[in-house]
Amino acid sequence: MTEDANEIKLPGAPATESPAVGEPTTPRGRLAPKPDQSGPETRTPTGAPTTAPQDAVAQQGHYLTTAQGVPLADTDHSLKAGRRGPVLLQDHHLREKITHFDHERIPERVVHARGAAAHGHFVANGEAEKYTAAAFLKAGTVTDTFVRFSTVLGSRGSADTARDTRGFATKFYTTEGVYDLVGNNIPVFFIQDAIKFPDIIHAGKPHPDREIPQAQSAHDTFWDFVSLHTEAQHHTIWNMSDRALPRSYRMMQGFGIHTFRLVNADGATVLVKFHWRPRLGTHGLVWEEAQLIAGKDPDYHRRDLADAIEAGAYPEWDFAIQVFPDTEDQLFAGIDLLDPTKLVPEELAPLKVIGTMTLDRNPLNYFDETEQVAFHPGHLVPGIDVTSDPLLQGRLFSYLDTQITRLGGPNFAQIPINRPHADVNDMLRDGLHQDAVHSGVAPYRPNSLDGGCPFPAALHGDEGAQAFIDVPQPVQQDVVTRAQPASFDDHFSQARQFYRSLTPIEQQHVKQAYSFELGKVYEQTIKERELQALVNIDVDLAAFVAEQLGLDVPAASENVPDTDPSGALSMITDDEWPVDGRQLGIVIDDETDASVLASVREAVDAAGVTPVVIAPHGGTAAGSPVQRTFQTAASIELDAVLVLASTSDPRIVQLLAEAFRHDKAIAAATEAADTLHVAAISVSAPGIAVEEPAEATRALLELLPSHRVWGRESA
Ligand code: HDE
């Protein structure tokens, strides 16, 4: 084509002479709509048809169009005044495309910005029926769920394995509307009153001058706040344990933290705390490993969750409650149930399992689902009500408010991921991003124009819909005050109980974590103040950290009551756990016997563990596809390593040395034992096997269900 030719092209004619870059030639069909993509349009008060087509979602037809549905022939070149000329303002397609792009990002969550999510379902076993009128807790009821896991402090692009609390937020799409349980993986919180939330978050976020450090608690402002708030010590010691470094979202407990009130159909109430217990057990990473992962695979948890679900290894959690009588003082065994810095040990109030959740479907689109999902502790259903926990009360305000900024207006419940799987017949109208086309003329009650619709539901009726029950709880007669009860004043006894319930290995990790974190604090007074808090928790803990910091141990300033240790607080037990989704690295080279490798892989596969073949080059080696090369392999991806090749390659030596330090099971075929020797790994150390390949594989598969070779740390 010549430079001065008229370049207008008609649809159907070749757009330009530039070669097509391998685009598919057969247009793909529309994606199947998700079950929850039936819009609220049909749920108008009178049920009248609306003008908006049901399937007006996205990706219809075969041809590229503008947002207005006008077919386009070219989306790769701006409209220019000649090939070398300026771009024309009249290029409406260019402007529409760039303008939309400019506005693609929405404000990230002010906390919990980094997250990953999955769809699933919950099956109730009926054990909660006597306590609550909630329909989704009746025996055998299956309810769709969507769960978003998150870190708290980091931005959307931060690493998954930061030392941090994890969010565990569950949306239950019940037949009585949406119920959200917006919990964490740690059963207590930093503060007792919501009014301090902006303060703790400002202190934990990067320093406002340089905006560093990202997703870290090892800095002055965090420890300044914590050391000035003795109430934060309990949550903080959990953060210093391996609980703050989950091995996987699939291996994390979840807690509702606050005490909630259940009410049954007779109006009888109990107080409860909610728990999620992972069927795979609760497991952590070790700190050096977590730091390496942050550089080598910042998407570690996100990848792990999606891969496991894609592979059919669906994670499951039992949903459980601790039940307490709804007494006037709201104390149980002397513990104030309204104080969110306190837990109730399982030994005092055992967990009653009330159902099980399975996550079995990955989101189709991160932004549409994981980013736009809007949780709110005020999304309650009949049978579940709140208590006066002052932290919970503040949250009831905050979550609705934040969605208005984040999702651009009050109609976020109409975004597909947020739509209830129940009839919606509210009298909310208009507003930004209104998606429904409401019919009728009378969005008010009572009315005589729209047939009186919608009708109020019954509070305790046998017929029709069960209405939400605001429990007629007596209100305390007292003076207006900015103060809290004296029972909130004990800030140390449960921090001490947690520390003393841990195994010596876990205690050692806690000591090292405090030493690391406070070692990165510049201000001497902050370190001294935190040591003062630590000595009130445990003198041995304080002495270790003080020595690491080169400071003196202060005298205890509080008379802290001793409580019995609670075994349920420790993660290191003698139990064995399923190994679904675990990865076993197999180091080979071109000399490795193909039949040996094939039978090892078969044995690993049969155990439900994923074999990861690591060879000097990509493609195929020893008759097997290679998943990682010596260049791309990393210890952090592996739960155990089998060495079938004799090598002194420094990358494999480093991989083995790290796996050894991180307490991972390692085995070598007898003829590859020298590889362990080069990595300075003693064959007599715990969790090391040198045997023929079949036995070596068996040894690893026997060690994996214990999660780690803890004996290596206590040896
Ligand atoms: Fe949150 N929290 N929070 N929080 N929270 C948010 O809501 C807030 C608290 C938790 O995956 C925000 O939609 C206040 C406790 C999770 O989308 C915001 C207070 C617990 C998630 C907010 C708390 C949590 C959030 C940010 C003190 C455990 C992520 C974006 C009173 C029980 C949910 C958003 C998701 C998110 C406020 C304390 C858990 C700003 C004011 C305690 C898991 O509304």
From TrEMBL:
Output the PROSITE patterns linked to this UniProt entry: CATALASE_1, CATALASE_2, CATALASE_3
The Enzyme Commission number assigned here is: 1.11.1.6
Annotated region described as Disordered, given as residue ranges: 1-55
The enzyme class is oxidoreductase
The Catalase core domain covers which part of the protein?
A: 65-453
A single Gene Ontology MF term assigned here is:
catalase activity
Domain of life (superkingdom): Bacteria
Mind telling me what this protein is named? Catalase
Organism, by scientific name, is Gryllotalpicola reticulitermitis
